[in-house]
Amino acid sequence: MPFIPHTKEDIREMLAAIGAPSIEALFDEIPQELRIKSLTGIPEGLAELEVGRLMTERAKLDGTPLSFIGAGAYEHHIPSAVWAITSRGEIYSAYTPYQAEASQGTLQAIYEYQTMIASLTGMQVSNATLYDGGSALAEAALMAVRAHRKSTSMRLLVPASVHPHYRKVAVAMAGNQDLVFDTIPYVRETGRIDMAALTAHAGEDITAVVIPQPNFFGVLEDVDALTDWAHAQGALVIAVVNPTSLALLKPPGEWGAKGVDIVVGEGQPLGVPLSSGGPYFGFMTTRMEHVRQMPGRIVGRTVDLDGREGFTLTLQAREQHIRRGKATSNICTNQGLLMTAATIYMSIMGPEGLERVAAQSAQRTRELVAALTRVKGVRKAFDSPHFHEAVLLLERPAAVVLRELADRGVLGGFDLAADYPELGSALLVCATETKTAADIDRYSAALAEALRAARAA
Amino acid sequence: MTQIPADIRYAKSHEWAKLLGDGSVEVGISDHAQGALGDLVFVEVPAVGRTLDAGEACAVVESVKAASDVYSPVAGTVTEVNGELANAPELINSDPYGAGWLFRLRPAAAGALDALLTAADYEAVLQAENA
Predict the structure, then answer these.
(1) Is residue A332 pLDDT above 90, yes or no?
(2) Can you point out the beta strands (E) in A24-132?
């Protein structure tokens, strides 16, 4: 069978069957004035050789700066085997394997992924990925509203220390579906959730409380107390976590007396390259009791008619290919390839390898913070335990200092001015296992120079 | 052969409604509906105390093939739900007009069932669907 399914003859027959004169006629409901006659500003096609040269030249413009930016996307070492295996034909597909008899490789990879991510988060069931961490939080909010049938407020408490992009995405995706996101402030000295501000909501109808760990500042929250407080109010708990950190920290399934209800996060740290911001993938796990409200694909293990083990999509009765407009979600699996890479990354690293990555990242960040705070005009913003990121306060505007650093080949961190203006000149810095002591020395020396330059300007 | 008991009323969307001795109305899905859905694996019933309009989506029956909304045939307030279905959704397949009932409600108005289809009307609806 040819891979391209529609021959001219097929098209002619199909048009004849529905009585349409041409494909163009199928679009006649689109008014003429809305149609674009031809594309403008699109150059002629290039040969592969020319494209290769162009892309090489463009890539050179990026240079090879030393990056200390985290803020949701993390530079980890990716073993070469990860993408070599991911590109094998048996599993190289971004698409939903509806046809189980032709997709056992992909389906088993997804099943293994679900097992690993459920284990990492300490939950019972995982879906086969969402678009990214931000859309995962939005889907978790919508899911919480569906799952919490006693709560009618559709109101969620979201700490200001949740990734600002995730909060914006959640409002953009769910805000027009009558969900309300109330912000809980953080304490300026610690960078942690303001418990007094949170507990002021005691007794209210709250659908869910979002708890980040680590939070956007890299700071570790008192997740046990937060989870128990939320459950005492009858609210569900949505954890937003960094998957690498879970190799060291208590999994959300064990937070507090009962564990959380839904876990989401950004899967990029698990074997997905930074690639200028995407594509990445979001993960989501939950308890069995909420599985029917969980959006997206789920693969199950079963037996065929002859009793042989096999894998297939399961619990799909509420998904878009069956329920159409009434579906739980409209999630596609274009992140399937990244999920496959994450599965292979996790299987190559193993629990021990992942733990070493997490521990080294945390250690390097401690060394980075110690080195940078020895520079005149730099101090720590918060006095709290942190994972592999920390906020530094600079005596000159972060934007100016970052420009000076970039001139010296260092990407110094994420400027918090736009999202957290109350902090003044604040920089979120990150070090992973990819950074050496020499890298940290180089940043530290560059920062001293950058601040001197900024003072002189 | 699809069963359509003559002593209860029906909705075009394949629910049935039965007037009970205490004036409340019991609601379920028809034998035809359960047959079309196939083996039921999960049922979501409305919360007790919820006020429903006639025709409002208030429950979900999920089979291995699809999840479908159930619409309340009459307006009223939910007084009781069938707790057995949480562990045994197959009761709807085996006994759609008996042990497979979904919920009971106190109708907002007396005579609410009069507007619904009789068994003969419903049979005609099914025949029209098959035609």
Answers:
(1) no
(2) 66-67, 125-126
